[in-house]
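R.M. (postdoc): so does anyone remember the format we settled on? I'll just put the structure tokens first.
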């Protein structure tokens, strides 16, 4: 096909093929498949499409789009790549380049996942306004189709259309202005929005080696230990449940289909802190990260997991949990030093350790920068805490702000 359209930033491959049909005035789905793929049996797939070597061939004159570029920049594959083994990831890439007959979804765990994805078409009213201004046309963005979520990470609520991709097996439907409709429903999507914004950061992580299941096992055991949620080698799951419950409403977990059997021994929250025998979804990881880690970028988390050393390549209960320090950047360490220094300046050493943002930060520095941390704390042990912060800390532990103010005034 001549003049195949170049994908817009964040555009799905499905959408690019649909625009090609519009540009060339092709109304027949089979004729479009012939023109683009030379194959009338190609399935129009939104999230994890195949036959991408044909798309790369259509774009070869640009010199910018390899099969891997298309997979990582214009599909939802990056949401799965860090959480499956390298072997499965590479095999999935090979299948997406050619023909998979549905095997990609099975290999990446989509078919059996707790995360329920809707195949309804959906769009963000604010995004399409920007598309019209910037490009003069509309297209389907991949961040409108985050599995399990129904929000736009930039603007919030998405409008769901009645048509579903599954209704048109071989047809690539473009986004047209005739499909736009009003939706006046008010939906509380604050927590879903937080998850969607973190998901976009995962989507933007460039290709890299996937951590092994052993490394994920060690990472979550270390995390529980750092947060004081371990008794010996045993993880205190009840304490972790409390931390997650304090961050996410049960209604949000219900919307994500992650509220099932949370009180049982086999619930996903307990399983993710045990020995990993299978991959967990990006949403399950994201919920734990947002609840237990503060101001941590997904790329940093995954890089840290990849840096974990597994003794002799094997993990078991007796494995020493250790991290190779070489992969921790100087910038990361300096940034955390500055954050800790600011907390200590505001609240003192003891207050900083009890602060909601200070617990995980202290644990990270203790594990990776222990000498500096102990020396810094020793110098600032007697640092005087500002009166207003002292009152604030006391109010959190003993009573209302006004009550504590009266006590200090009496003194």
């Amino acid at each position: 096909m001549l003049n195949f359209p170049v994908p817009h930033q964040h555009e799905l491959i499905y959408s690019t093929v649909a625009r090609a049909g519009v540009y060339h005035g092709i109304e027949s789905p089979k004729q479009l498949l012939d023109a683009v793929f030379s194959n009338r049996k190609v399935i129009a797939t939104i999230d994890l499409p195949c036959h991408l070597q044909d798309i790369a061939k259509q774009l070869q004159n640009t010199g910018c789009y390899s099969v891997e570029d298309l997979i990582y920049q214009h599909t939802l594959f990056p949401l799965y790549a860090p959480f499956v083994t390298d072997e499965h990831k590479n095999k999935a890439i090979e299948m997406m380049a050619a023909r998979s007959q549905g095997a990609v979804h099975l290999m990446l765990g989509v078919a059996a996942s707790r995360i329920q994805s809707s195949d309804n078409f959906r769009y963000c009213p604010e995004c399409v306004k920007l598309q019209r201004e910037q490009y003069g046309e509309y297209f389907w963005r991949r961040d409108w189709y985050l599995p399990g979520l129904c929000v736009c990470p930039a603007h919030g609520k998405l409008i769901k259309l009645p048509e579903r991709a599954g209704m048109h097996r071989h047809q690539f439907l473009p986004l047209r202005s005739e499909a736009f409709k009003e939706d006046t429903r008010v939906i509380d999507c604050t927590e879903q929005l937080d998850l969607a914004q973190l998901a976009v950061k995962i989507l933007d992580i460039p290709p890299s080696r996937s951590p092994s299941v052993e490394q994920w096992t060690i990472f979550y055991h270390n995390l529980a230990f750092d947060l004081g949620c371990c008794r010996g080698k045993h993880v205190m799951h009840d304490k972790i449940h409390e931390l997650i419950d304090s961050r996410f409403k049960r209604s949000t977990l219900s919307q994500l289909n992650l509220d099932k059997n949370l009180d049982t021994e086999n619930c996903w929250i307990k399983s993710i802190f045990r020995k990993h025998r299978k991959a967990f979804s990006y949403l399950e990881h994201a919920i734990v990260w947002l609840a237990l880690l503060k101001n941590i970028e997904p790329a940093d988390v995954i890089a840290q997991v990849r840096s974990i050393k597994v003794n002799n390549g094997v993990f078991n209960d007796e494995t020493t949990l250790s991290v190779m320090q070489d992969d921790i950047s100087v910038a990361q360490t300096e940034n955390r030093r500055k954050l800790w220094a600011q907390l200590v300046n505001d609240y003192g050493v003891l207050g900083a350790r009890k602060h909601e943002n200070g617990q995980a930060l202290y644990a990270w520095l203790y594990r990776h920068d222990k000498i500096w941390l102990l020396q810094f704390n020793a110098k600032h042990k007697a640092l005087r805490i500002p009166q207003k912060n002292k009152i604030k800390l006391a109010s959190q532990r003993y009573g209302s702000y006004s009550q504590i103010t009266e006590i200090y005034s009496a003194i």
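R.M.: ...and that's the designed sequence above, right after the tokens. Also worth knowing: The radius of gyration is 25 Å. Residues 313-327, 407-411 have pLDDT under 50 and may be disordered.
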